[in-house]
Amino acid sequence: MTKFVELFYRVLVISTNNKMAAKNKKNKVKKIKASLKQRTVAKKNIKKAQVKWKSMTKAEHAAAQPEGRARKKPGMGGKGKFYRVVVRPKAEFKIFRVHDVGKKGHVERLAGQRVNGRWATVSWLINKKEAHISKGILVGDNKDVKDVLGKLRRKPKHLKGDIFEAGPRKNVPEKSKPTPAMKKAQKKNIKKAQVARWPKKK
Q: Beta strands of the chain (E only): which ranges?
């Protein structure tokens, strides 16, 4: 009798395990079917979103983002160290370089290279400690800044943030060259070259 009960118990356990395994297999199949369906729907939604995104403008892209446009354009925030005086459209150039004019960190020139290889001034960067705004016009506080701003075609007019707009330097006719400023710079460069070539012996 004991052996019969033991055998019956084993058959019962095996039968129960088989039923549980079959049930788990069915559930697994159902889950896989559901995930495949979800993937198909997700792919369709992604394609729709991509088509919609391509048809949107840059402004619409920024508005669609929850955080908006994360990085502001240079000079737009109004919290920088420099005033930016734009003299030529940025779209005319392909390569840009910044270099100091005079002492470092006071006046900087942003130069751009056109497609034809020629370089020209795109904008001037004026340290905020070296200039101030008066009635919407940028005014220099020292000689260097006044010289830079004085050579522009128009007075730097405030647009937004730290950005000002002015025209490039006035064109000098060939018959008027070399100008006094050119002669002065030429003499200065000659002296520098002489000092570099024949340094004074101590």
A: 82-86, 95-100, 107-113, 119-127, 131-134, 137-140, 157-160, 163-165
